[in-house]
């Protein structure tokens, strides 16, 4: 009986530890608060001067291995945070750099180790995140460029991710440097062109935009796409 009791206690605390890992992005959250402004500007020089902060974040993420028992929100939070953290890692490995596109094939580099798998940013985006039927991920993951959605200066968490994704989407749409919206005319980020299929799963692109825009857009509005500024978001 005693051995069974201790076995139960061990399993109970093991379960608690696994659950804590799934939801604990405190190191990443603290890193973002320290190095990212509310406007999404990243202090890469500050990160370079104290690289241990980022290394600790990456080590904490690589110890977590999502599985089929995780909820969709837990997976979304983990993979979004992981994508953004390793994007910063990619920049720092090549810093100083004026643009992520100055790095050779940046999204195809195999350098993200999660468990026994080593992946690229493209793997995370196209093979995992885009398959989760959540188009708002495009306003949460960041490519370290001025025309990208801004890097939020707080970690995504499973308990808040619904409101976080909605806020990130609304914030991106209302930023007139990235999107200009009027009832009958749109100048949109090329994100809406590159990933057009993702925004049409439950209707048209206009249907999607009207869910998050403060301006009611006509279904017949004319659409143009803005030039993309790939300069570093520093």
Automatic annotation (TrEMBL):
Pfam entry (one): DUF547
Top-rank taxon: Bacteria
InterPro entries, A to Z: DUF547 (IPR006869)
Residues annotated as signal peptide: 1-22
Keyword tags: Signal
Domain DUF547: 69-173
Protein's name according to its UniProt entry: DUF547 domain-containing protein
